[in-house]
């Protein structure tokens, strides 16, 4: 638990975490390492990343290494989707049928063809082909 998020956890978090680790019989769900004499530190991971949601089905027992790997993987996925959403919101990425928000004229090379998007119509138009 990070100090900056400590207030988000309930006062009895240590008991909840210990119950989670006991439920998984002191074994990491991802790598099956135990904390019995192996120098492994087990933690309780919130699947939905909400420290206030301490339901049994939301908590899973992970060793520190697996906990960090899972958080890094999930953060990378979230960042990827956040970046895609940001590009769509900014009008820099447009799917068929979507109206870009701006700029007035957006030119992108997609599959070797330049597509122009008009702000007025919101439609993709093929540039005049040279004959």
Describe what this molecule looks like in 3D:
By secondary structure, the chain is an alpha+beta fold. It has 2 domains: about 5-90; about 95-125, no CATH class. It is about 30% helix and about 20% strand. It is built from 2 helices and 5 strands. The protein has helices at about 15-25, 65-90; strands spanning about 40-45, 60-65, 105-110, 115-120, 125. The strands form 2 sheets. The chain has a 3-stranded antiparallel β-sheet, with no helix packed on it. The chain has a two-stranded antiparallel sheet with strand order 1-2. A hairpin with a 2-residue loop joins strand 3 (about 105-110) and strand 4. It is globular and about 50 Å long.
Keywords:
5 strands; alpha+beta; disordered C terminus; 3-stranded antiparallel β-sheet; 2 domains; globular; 29% helix; 131 residues; two-stranded antiparallel ribbon
């Amino acid at each position: 638990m990070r100090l900056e998020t400590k207030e988000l956890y309930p006062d009895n978090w240590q008991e909840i975490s210990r119950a989670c680790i006991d439920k998984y019989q002191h074994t990491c769900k991802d790598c099956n390492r135990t904390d019995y004499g192996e120098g492994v530190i087990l933690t309780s991971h919130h699947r939905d990343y909400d420290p206030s949601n301490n339901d049994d089905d939301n908590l899973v027992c992970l060793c520190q290494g697996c906990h960090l790997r899972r958080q890094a993987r999930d953060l990378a996925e979230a960042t990827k989707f956040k970046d895609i959403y940001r590009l769509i919101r900014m009008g820099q990425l447009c799917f068929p049928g979507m109206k870009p928000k701006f700029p007035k004229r957006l030119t992108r090379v997609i599959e070797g063809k330049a597509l122009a998007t008009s702000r007025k119509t919101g439609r993709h138009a093929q540039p005049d082909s040279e004959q």
